[in-house]
Design brief:
The complex is a heterodimer of chains A (324) and B (394). With 324 residues, chain A is α/β, with parallel strands linked by helices. In chain A, 37% of the residues lie in helices and 20% in strands. Chain B is α+β, with helices and mostly antiparallel strands and 394 residues long. Chain B has three domains: 75 residues, RNA polymerase II/Efflux pump adaptor protein, barrel-sandwich hybrid domain (OB fold (Dihydrolipoamide Acetyltransferase, E2P), Beta Barrel); 66 residues, E3-binding domain (Dihydrolipoamide Transferase); 213 residues, Chloramphenicol Acetyltransferase (2-Layer Sandwich). The interface between A and B is small, with 9 and 12 residues.
C-alpha cells in the first residue's frame, strides 16, 4: 500500500470530499493559493477548486468560525481552519456558545454540519501562544464532537466522517504529526467516531494515548519490550464520543493504566479518563492509575525547558515501571 | 364452585431457620394430578440443617410441580400449585437448576460477610483488583503475601493463593442427595447403631446336608435359612422380640425379613409366619418378593411386620461380617459364602462345605448365652440331615 504523510492524507480527504459534495468549502487564514496553509494541508486546493471554495480570510478567528456556523446552518458544509489551536480562544463564543448549542436551542430544526480543523502541540519552539494542547476545553463542552487522529490513516478516515456528519466537529491535529508518513489506502473509506484503535496489543499494562503521544508511547513500548514488559496502547481516535468500553475492557485484562496526554494534568483529558476508569473499572485495577501529562505551566520558549515539560519516552517508561 | 373466590393455593418453600435463604426439594409425596388433602405431607424439603415435610396447605389436586426433586428453591418460592381440576391456574415460572450447586470442584468456601468487612477495616495494602478477586472467592486477603511495590497485594498474588488452596482442597466429583431408600437406610442404621448395643457371635456350619436338600428340591440357601431360623426361633422366642420403652415385647408371629440389594438400594421384604410355611412355599413366596423388589413393586405389606432379618452376602464372596440389626428387631443373622474347607472329622482331615453365620443381637434384650444357644440350634438343624429334612416338610 502506498504511504502518505499525515498532511497529505488530510489534504486528500478535503479534496475528495470537495469533489464529492459541492457544499463542502474551506476557509481560513492563508489557506489559499498564496500560502497553502501554515502547515500546507490545503496546498493546491485553491488552484483546483477556485478562491470561492478555498477562501482566505482576515486574521479574525471569531469571524472565521462565525461565518462557518452561518454557512453551515444555511446548508453548506464548511471546513474552517484555525492556524494554531491556541487561537481558537478567540473563536470560543462561536464554537462553544453557537456551534455547540444551535441544534439543541432550535429543537433540532437546524443543524450545524461544521468542521473546525486546528493544530495543537509543542515541540517546535514557538512558545506559549502557539504550543498548547487544549482538547479538554472542547471535550468539556456538550454539543461538540472532538476528533484527535494520530496517524495518516486515521486522519483521512475521520476527517471524511467529520465532513459528512451533521454536527459540529473540533478536528484537532498536532503540528509534529504533519510530516509523519504511513499507509493510506487509495480507495474511499471512513472511520466511525467513538471507536478506539488498539495501536499495540499487550498484557502487562494499558497505555491510553492521544495525538503525537501515541507515537512517543509506541517508541516507549519498543524499549519496554526489550525488558520483557508488554504494554497495550489504546488510541481513542475521538474524545467525544469516547470509546469507554475499549478502555475498560483493556484495563480489565491488564489491571493497570497509564494515561499519556500532552495537555496539562489538572482537569485535563487525562483527568477525565482516570475518573472513568476509577468509576467503572476500579475493581480491576491492580495498581494506582498513572498519568503522564504536562505540568501546569505555560509552554516555555526555551528549547531545553520546553523539552523538560513535554512528556517523552523516558517519562512514559518510568510511569509504567512505577506501577508494575 | 364459588364465583369470584380463587381456589388456587400455592405450595411454597418454608423458612426453616432465621438464616435460611433457600432449600432443596427432596421428595414429592404426590404426583401432578393426584388428589391432596389439607394437612397431609406433600413435599419433603431440606435446608442446611433439617429436613421437613411440608403439609398440603389446601385440599384439591396437585395441578403443577414447579420445582422438581433435587432443585434448590428460594424461601417463599412457589414449589407447586393446588387447585380444583378445572380451575385456571396462574403461569408461574418453574424453578430450575440455573444456580450452580453449592459444592463444585475446587470451590473455596465463602466466608461470612462480617469477616470480609473486618478485613477491609484492617487496611491491608492491596490493589482493588486483588481485593475484588479475594472477595469473589471468599479468601481472607490478610493471608496473602504481596509481591507488588511496598508489598502491595496484587491480583496475581491472590490468584496464586487461590490456586494453592484449590490444590489442597479435596475435589468433589459429584454430590448425591440423600433421599428415598438411601435416606431411609441411613436413618435406620443410625437409629440401630445409636440405640441398640450390638454384640456379634459367629459359628461355622457344615453345609453338606443343606446342599443335599437344596439340590433335591431346588431351593436356595436363603430359602433354607428362612425356614431353619424360623424354626429355631420357635424355641428361642426371646430373639423374636422388640424393646418398647421399659418393656420387651415378644412376638407371636415369626416373620422373617430378607435383605435384598436392588439398584435403588437395600429393601427387606418379609416372609410372614415362616415357621408355619413348608419350605417350598417359602421358596415360592421369596421368589415372588424378589421379583417384586427388582421391579420396585413391593407393597407396604411386603415390607412391614418383620420380626427377624436374614442378610446374605455369600454370593459376593463374603465369609464373615458383622450385620447391623434392622430396628426395632432384636437380632439379625449374617450369612457368609459356602466354601469347601479342610475340617477334622474323627481325627482325619476331610474336605467339607463350610459356611459362617454371624448373629448380631441387641444386648439390652438378650445376653450372649441365650443368643449362642439360638445360633447353636440353627447350626444343629442345618447340619443334622434328619432334622433338616423333617422341618422342610412342615
Amino acid at each position: 500500500m502506498r504511504e502518505l504523510t499525515y498532511r497529505d492524507a488530510l489534504g486528500e480527504a478535503l479534496r475528495e470530499e470537495m469533489l464529492r459534495d459541492k457544499t463542502v468549502f474551506l476557509l481560513g487564514e492563508d489557506i489559499g493559493r498564496y500560502w497553502g496553509g501554515a502547515f500546507k494541508v490545503t496546498k493546491g486546493l485553491a488552484e483546483e477548486f477556485g478562491d470561492e471554495r478555498v477562501r482566505d480570510t482576515p486574521i479574525s478567528e471569531s469571524t472565521i468560525v462565525g461565518v462557518a456556523v452561518g454557512a453551515a446552518i444555511t446548508g453548506m458544509r464548511p471546513v474552517a481552519e484555525i492556524m494554531f489551536g491556541d487561537l481558537s480562544a478567540l473563536a470560543m463564543d462561536q464554537i462553544c456558545n453557537q456551534a455547540a448549542k444551535i441544534c439543541y436551542m432550535f429543537g433540532g430544526q437546524t443543524k450545524v454540519p461544521l468542521v473546525v480543523r486546528t493544530p495543537f502541540g509543542a515541540g517546535v519552539n514557538i512558545a506559549s501562544h502557539h504550543s498548547q494542547s487544549l482538547e479538554a476545553w472542547f471535550m468539556h463542552t456538550p454539543g461538540l464532537l472532538v476528533a484527535v487522529p494520530s496517524t495518516p490513516f486515521d486522519a483521512k478516515g475521520l476527517l471524511k466522517t467529520a465532513i459528512r456528519g451533521n454536527n459540529p466537529v473540533m478536528f484537532l491535529e498536532h503540528k509534529l504529526l504533519y510530516p509523519v508518513e504511513d499507509k493510506v489506502p487509495e480507495e474511499d473509506y471512513t472511520i466511525p467516531f467513538g471507536v478506539a484503535d488498539v495501536k499495540l496489543e499487550g498484557k502487562d499494562a494499558t497505555i491510553f494515548a492521544t495525538l503525537y503521544m501515541v507515537h512517543k508511547t509506541l517508541a516507549a513500548a519498543q524499549e519496554l519490550r526489550k525488558e520483557g514488559i508488554s504494554v497495550e496502547v489504546i488510541d481513542p481516535r475521538t474524545l467525544v464520543p469516547l470509546d469507554k468500553q475499549a478502555i475498560i475492557k483493556s484495563v480489565k485484562r491488564t489491571g493497570r493504566i497509564v494515561i499519556v496526554t500532552e495537555d496539562c494534568k489538572t482537569a485535563g483529558v487525562s483527568a477525565e479518563i482516570a475518573a472513568i476508569v476509577a468509576e467503572e473499572a476500579l475493581d480491576y485495577l491492580d495498581a494506582p492509575i498513572k498519568r503522564v501529562a504536562e505540568p501546569d505551566t505555560p509552554i516555555p520558549f526555551s528549547p531545553p525547558l520546553e523539552k523538560f515539560v513535554i512528556p517523552d519516552e523516558k517519562t512514559i517508561i518510568k510511569a509504567v515501571k512505577e506501577i508494575l | 364452585m364459588y364465583e369470584g373466590i380463587s381456589l388456587v393455593t400455592k405450595v411454597v418453600m418454608p423458612r426453616l431457620s432465621l438464616t435460611m435463604k433457600e432449600g432443596t426439594v427432596v421428595q414429592w409425596f404426590k404426583k401432578e394430578g393426584e388428589t391432596v388433602k389439607k394437612g397431609e405431607p406433600l413435599v419433603e424439603v431440606l435446608s442446611e440443617k433439617v429436613t421437613y415435610d411440608v403439609e398440603s396447605p389446601a385440599s384439591g389436586i396437585l395441578r403443577k410441580i414447579l420445582a422438581d426433586e433435587g432443585i434448590d428453591a428460594p424461601v417463599a418460592g412457589t414449589l407447586g400449585i393446588i387447585a380444583e381440576p378445572d380451575e385456571p391456574i396462574p403461569e408461574i415460572e418453574e424453578i430450575t437448576a440455573t444456580t450452580p450447586p453449592p459444592e463444585r470442584i475446587g470451590e473455596v468456601t465463602l466466608l461470612p460477610e462480617k469477616e470480609i468487612v473486618r478485613e477491609v477495616e484492617e487496611r491491608v495494602l492491596a490493589s482493588p483488583a486483588a481485593k475484588r478477586l479475594a472477595r469473589e472467592h471468599g479468601l481472607n486477603i490478610t493471608k496473602v503475601k504481596g509481591s507488588g511495590p511496598e508489598g502491595r497485594i496484587i491480583e496475581a498474588d491472590v490468584k496464586r493463593c487461590l490456586e494453592e488452596e484449590v490444590a489442597l482442597a479435596t475435589r468433589v466429583r459429584e454430590v448425591i442427595l440423600l433421599k428415598g431408600i438411601r435416606k431411609t437406610t441411613a436413618e435406620r442404621v443410625s437409629l440401630s447403631a445409636r440405640t441398640a448395643p450390638h454384640s456379634t457371635i459367629t459359628m461355622e456350619v457344615n453345609m453338606t446336608n443343606a446342599i443335599r436338600l437344596r439340590e433335591e428340591i431346588q431351593v436356595s440357601y436363603t430359602d433354607i435359612l428362612v425356614k431353619v431360623v424360623a424354626k429355631a426361633l420357635e424355641e428361642h422366642r426371646i430373639l423374636n422380640s422388640t424393646i418398647v420403652g421399659e418393656k420387651i415385647k415378644i412376638y407371636e408371629d415369626i416373620n422373617i425379613g430378607v435383605a435384598v440389594a436392588t439398584e435403588k438400594g437395600l429393601v427387606v421384604p418379609v416372609v410372614r409366619n415362616a415357621n408355619k410355611k413348608p419350605l417350598l412355599q417359602i421358596a415360592s413366596t421369596l421368589k415372588g418378593l424378589l421379583e417384586k423388589a427388582r421391579e420396585r413393586e413391593l407393597s407396604r405389606e411386603d415390607l412391614t411386620g418383620g420380626t427377624f432379618t436374614i442378610t446374605n452376602l455369600g454370593m459376593y464372596g463374603v465369609e464373615v461380617f458383622i450385620p447391623i440389626i434392622n430396628p426395632p428387631e432384636a437380632a439379625i443373622l449374617g450369612v457368609g459364602k459356602v466354601t469347601e474347607k479342610p475340617v477334622i472329622v474323627n481325627k482325619e482331615v476331610k474336605i467339607k462345605p463350610i459356611m459362617y453365620l454371624s448373629l448380631s443381637y441387641d444386648h439390652r434384650i438378650v445376653d450372649g448365652a441365650p443368643a449362642a444357644q439360638f445360633l447353636q440350634k440353627v447350626k444343629q438343624i442345618l447340619e443334622k440331615g434328619s432334622e433338616l429334612f423333617s422341618i422342610s416338610e412342615c
